[in-house]
Amino acid sequence: MAAISYQLYSSRNWDVAETFAMLADLGVKEVEGFGPYFEDPARTRALLDAHGMTMPTAHFALDLVEADPEKVISIAQTIGIETVIIPYLAAENRPDTVDGWKAFGARVAAASKPVRAAGLGFAWHNHDFEMVPVDGHMPLDLIAAASDDIQIELDLAWVHVAGEDPVAWVRRFAGRLAAVHVKDVAQSGENTDEDGWADVGFGIMDWPAIKAEMDAAGVSRYVIEHDNPNDHKRMASRSLASVQAF
After folding, report:
1. Secondary structure letter of residue 173 according to DSSP
2. Distance (Å, rounded) from C-alpha 18 to C-alpha 152?
3. What distance in Å separates the CA atoms of residue 227 and residue 198, rounded to the nearest whole number?
4. Predicted structure pTM score
């Protein structure tokens, strides 16, 4: 059975102590971290331990991984992170040619080497821009092609937003998925105060079809996320119930 995690970015607008207490009350055992949780790794580890949680995956900025891999490795070892995930590339830095994306893939592959040498996993997390074709090639494919050591954390909702089929992309990266982000998209015109996202199971994603493909692909970790909930407790509780019902 796949593990269920919670991306702490979803609760960035709430107090950290409140967030951990809320998640613990819901029975959440895994969380996925991001930048602010690396400022004091010992405090983050203490929070996790106090609430009976672990942080097996986390999002790190590519610039930090490139500039100071030793720091990234130290943070991971202190907190207990097993897989370092690169989550984003700013719009102004995105290539617009196939060769440019190939070069970027090589850059990501190079950044993975010290992380992998330390015994950690390494992955790329997609948004929608990696699924905008460039001369007939998908940038996400070009990143993945740079090295077999680059796993993928597939964000299913961003795949949908890009106009692509999440089922097809799960199948495409079967055996290479470090985790998937289970996230939902609201009906057109709904949840505008939440940027058009929905609690998992309360949007338009075809979860039965996606779940069947995730099972076939051997996905081992579901990470619940909502990019801008107006009530993180409601979102976490409803989304967790939906994922547990898969």
Report:
1. T
2. 31
3. 9
4. 0.97
Task: Supply 66's token pair.
Answer: 């490139």
DSSP-derived letter for residue 201 is T
Q: H-helix or E-strand containing 210? A: helix 207-217
Domain ranges of the chain: 3-244
What is the number of residues in the chain? Answer: 246
What are the structure tokens assigned to 243, written together? 């994922």
Predicted pLDDT at 183? 98
Q: What CATH number does the domain located at 3-244 have?
A: 3.20.20.150
pLDDT at res. 167: 98
Three-class DSSP category at 149: coil
Phi, psi of 77 (to 5 degrees): -70, -40
Pair 152, 112: CB distance under 8 Å: no
pLDDT recorded at residue 246: 86
For position 1, what pLDDT does the model report?
81
Nearest to 120 by CA among 111, 128, 129: 111
Which residues, given as ranges, of the chain have pLDDT below 70?
none
8 Å CB contact between 28 and 242: no
